[in-house]
Design goal:
heterodimer; A: alpha/beta; Nucleotidyltransferase, domain 5; 2 domains; 5-stranded mixed β-sheet; 10 strands; about 45% helix; about 20% strand; B: Nucleotidyltransferase, domain 5; globular
Chain lengths: ~325, ~230
């Protein structure tokens, strides 16, 4: 594999500054400066706080990624950076840095769609993964089901009609006082809880692959206020497990709708919500029951990282693509 | 000494190459939102014209504000990457210094102004000296009214430079001894001069210590009241 191209990947679309070196589809280094602590006190990502943290971290982190990969920057075959979608002020930092670095090193530059990065992430853990596949992408910023027909050929089958799944976790965890980010907090609190303690509604919009999570929030808030007043509120672990179950149910149902509808027998996932242990277990159960091959990446490859950007870069480089020096970020970039 | 200067702290972005004090090429564009798209093509063009390669660069000078947050970050990210790629030193420069340096006066006190948006202005006073300017006080973030009060209380004749057009006209009305002048925005050639002076004094920080000068905390607050209300059982 030493002949495979080595690509530096830079990801700054939201609240993680992440840089990685990938050779072919093998991860040589994958480092990250998480801003979770900086945003936790605000209960969500603050764009200006995110952008400030990126510009402070990007240089040192790039050097660390190269050092951990045992690589000199002169030996890179390309530099890839997230172009969008994401927070404009945050994207600007990694994109400007990557573009300038590529120019100065006289190496190709590739602006990468963050969502395409997520589609490539499972490939880094699992050489068996590839098209055709159905991919569930769910995080604080997006929730969608993508039909990976071929590399570079993506059809978004469905997406959320209101809140993203991760947003629902964040809002509900904040409401329950469990902390931020909400997904890991609810995952942690739900341990030992009964997922059937409270049957919160599962919103299943008519369109078979679309999600809706705003109704769940209203329903949980109403339920908690009513039962707290009456002194009949179930313990937090039961509440957390029940909320988690409602979100997982919807994601699993819609994802397998897509699997059955397309007849594709491979399933993968990406985005921070796919780090949720209950969702992973439910997807695994259901895939096993239906005989569908499941390619869930490790938790580190589900959340935002530089390696997935580099992996998409490896692919784009192989096609002979180059992103022009005059390119700008696109905060509302859409897959496909 | 070969210097590359990157200026993108205000709506006017510019890039300049210099051998010592002599600017061998520069390029400018006024477009508040276009800095990310402008900087690298401008560098590429100027390097081609000058016959330079990035490895020839000794110092990368960059305006770190105050000014447009996004523009400053685009400029600093670009400068950090270039400096890191070729082992050049990084020279951070103030936008107010760059504006004041190009003010044309021999005796007036200079007031440099950069629009910090949201009704606030970054201002600093300078004294012209042979060959340059010396800052006479700290950088302040002030409202238009507060700036007027500062000007009114100063007895010396003053020249206001920078983005004074962003101030309401009433700021200058009835003030004696105050004139307005150019330049409106800092430019890369002034960034070259300021960086060169620092480099010659060997006064350049470690690249990790170079941070934007925002002058303002992020505009967020923790809503403790709502947090409490939303944890009814604790």
């Amino acid at each position: 594999m030493t002949d495979a191209p080595a690509v530096l990947g830079i990801e700054t679309s939201c609240d993680e500054t992440a840089v990685a070196v990938v050779r072919g589809y093998r991860v040589l280094s994958n480092v990250l400066a998480s801003q979770v602590d900086a945003h936790a006190r605000f209960g969500g990502v603050v764009p200006e706080v995110a952008a400030r943290a990126h510009v402070e971290a990007i240089r040192a982190l790039t050097h660390r990624a190269l050092a951990e990969a045992g690589m000199h920057q002169m030996d890179l075959d390309a530099i890839a950076a997230t172009r969008g979608p994401g927070l404009a002020g945050a994207l600007m930092v990694g994109f400007s840095y990557g573009k300038a670095l590529a120019w100065a090193l006289d190496t190709p530059f590739l602006g990468i769609d963050h969502m395409e990065g997520h589609l490539f992430a499972p490939r880094l853990d699992d050489p068996e993964y590839g098209p055709p596949a159905i991919v569930l992408l769910a995080s604080g910023g997006h929730s969608q089901i993508v039909h990976l027909k071929d590399w570079g050929e993506y059809e978004t089958l469905g997406s959320t009609i209101d809140d993203a799944a991760g947003e629902a976790f964040d809002k509900l965890a904040r409401f329950l006082g469990l902390g931020y980010p909400g997904g890991p907090a609810i995952d942690r609190e739900s341990e030992g809880g009964d997922p059937d303690a409270v049957r919160f509604p599962r919103a299943l919009p008519d369109r078979p692959f679309d999600f809706s999570f705003s109704g769940l929030k209203t329903s949980v808030v109403t339920y908690v206020r009513k039962h707290h007043a009456a002194g009949t509120l179930p313990p937090i672990p039961d509440l957390a497990a029940s909320i988690q179950e409602a979100i997982a149910d919807v994601l699993v149902a819609k994802t397998f709708n897509a699997v059955e509808e397309t007849g594709v027998r491979a399933l993968a996932g990406g985005g921070g919500v796919l780090a949720n242990r209950r969702l992973r277990a439910r997807l695994a159960e259901e895939a096993d029951r239906r005989g569908v091959a499941l390619h869930l990446p490790s938790v580190a490859m589900c959340t935002d990282n530089g390696a997935m950007v580099a992996a998409a870069g490896v692919y784009r480089l192989g096609l002979g693509e180059r992103t022009a020096p005059s390119a700008d970020i696109d905060s509302s970039l859409r897959l496909g | 000494m070969r210097i590359v200067a990157i200026e993108s702290a205000t709506p006017a972005a510019s890039v300049a190459l210099a051998e010592g004090r002599e600017v061998v090429g520069s390029s400018q564009r006024v477009d508040r939102r276009g800095h990310v798209a402008f900087l690298v093509p401008a560098l590429e063009f100027l390097f081609d014209q000058a016959g330079w390669s990035p490895g020839d660069v000794d110092v990368v000078a960059v305006d770190v504000g105050p000014g447009l947050f996004g523009g400053i970050r685009a400029g600093l990210s670009t400068a950090q990457a270039l400096a890191g790629a070729v082992g050049a030193r990084l020279a951070p420069v103030s936008s107010l210094d760059a504006v004041a340096l190009r003010a044309a006066t021999a005796h007036r006190k200079i007031w440099a102004v950069v629009d910090a948006r949201r009704g606030e202005y970054a201002v600093a006073p300078y004294q012209p000296v042979p060959g340059g300017v010396v800052r006479e006080g700290g950088v302040e973030l002030v409202s238009a009214e507060a700036f007027r009060a500062i000007l009114a209380s100063d007895r010396r004749d003053g020249l206001v430079v920078g983005d004074w057009e962003a101030l309401p006209e009433s700021v200058f009305r009835g003030l004696h001894g105050i004139k307005t002048g150019r330049p409106r925005y800092p430019a890369a050639d002034a960034v070259v001069d300021l960086a060169l002076a620092r480099a010659e004094r060997d006064d350049l920080p470690h690249p990790d210590e170079v941070r934007p000068r925002y002058l303002r905390e992020p505009d967020v607050r923790i809503n403790w009241t709502d947090f409490r209300r939303e944890e009814p059982w604790r």
